[in-house]
Design a protein that fits this description.
10 helices; 280 residues; mainly alpha; membrane; 0% strand
Length: 280
């Protein structure tokens, strides 16, 4: 196997490791808060539609069972997030605050920072907690890299195929292309409602790790394609996967910006709890 194929396989396995655990932080966040209101329902629904496209494509193409199992797993995780949202709305209605329009500049900052979740639902952020979370994310990334390397090595020792289970084909089959572009459009479109909702919720109840692992999974997936070959025909055949994964990363960085902007805003409120309303 050529060195480029080796690197492509390693990147592919790392991507799979990211996507296996990407949902766990948000599911745990919802369980801890007993609320799923940090998530946009259209975000989850559109993401679910994208994963269903992947599942249908895997079944139509007759891909190996590993790919199909992963597609089923992603779909079940999407359904779990939706179940949590509606379950907690029914069981814990007191945790749901009305979604208010964005406050004006004359409104107190304290009231705008807790529009989606009550103050008791989420601990006040501190600098030490921020560093602790950063350390946890760093360890999680190391775990993903190590898992990807181990999975690649085990697969190679077992005499598996040259490609990782998630590697796309390089043939120009129109059915695969249609499904691929549908998935790409859905994955891109899913971020928009979440970005809009974050302006109201100030990212309360939303797990940063969800997007950290989504970015890591998409970046390693793009690398698994590009490292293998940069020939024009190969890139065109895989253009939908490159677009769906690569462009989504840029939208996820917008979410990162929202996280850090609103986190710094809440830290400022904690440091100076007495906030006077601005003059009209």
């Amino acid at each position: 196997m050529a060195i480029t194929d080796e690197l492509s396989s390693v990147a592919g396995w790392m991507s799979i490791a990211c996507w296996i655990i990407v949902y766990s932080p948000q599911i745990y966040e919802n369980y801890t808060l007993k609320s799923g209101e940090g998530l946009s329902v259209p975000f989850v629904l559109i993401w679910l539609a994208g994963d269903l496209c992947n599942l249908v494509g895997a079944l139509m193409a007759g891909l190996i069972p590993t790919v199909i199992i992963l597609a089923v797993y992603y779909t079940l995780c999407d359904l779990t997030l939706l179940l949590q949202i509606y379950y907690y709305r029914h069981v814990h209605p007191t945790h749901i605050a009305p979604i208010l329009p964005s406050p004006s500049e004359s409104a107190p900052l304290l009231s705008s920072s807790t529009a989606a979740l009550p103050p008791s639902s989420e601990p006040k952020p501190t600098t030490s907690n921020t560093w602790k979370k950063a350390a946890v994310y760093g360890l999680a990334v190391v775990f993903v890299v190590a898992t990807g390397l181990i999975a690649w090595r085990v697969s190679k020792s077992a005499g598996g195929g040259e490609d990782s289970p998630g590697s796309p084909e390089d043939g120009l089959d129109w059915k695969t292309q249609v499904i691929g572009w549908c998935s790409a459009i859905l994955y891109l479109g899913s971020r928009i409602p979440q970005i809009l909702k974050n302006r109201i919720t100030k990212c309360s109840g939303l797990s940063l790790a969800l997007f950290v692992f989504a970015v890591a999974g998409n970046v390693t997936y793009v690398l698994s394609i590009c490292v293998k070959s940069m020939q024009w025909q190969y890139l065109v055949a895989n253009s939908s996967w490159l677009a769906g994964s690569g462009l989504t990363v840029f939208l996820d960085f917008i979410v990162f910006g929202q996280f850090f902007y609103y986190r710094s805003e809440r830290l400022a409120i904690v440091d100076d709890p007495v906030v006077e309303p601005a003059e009209a």
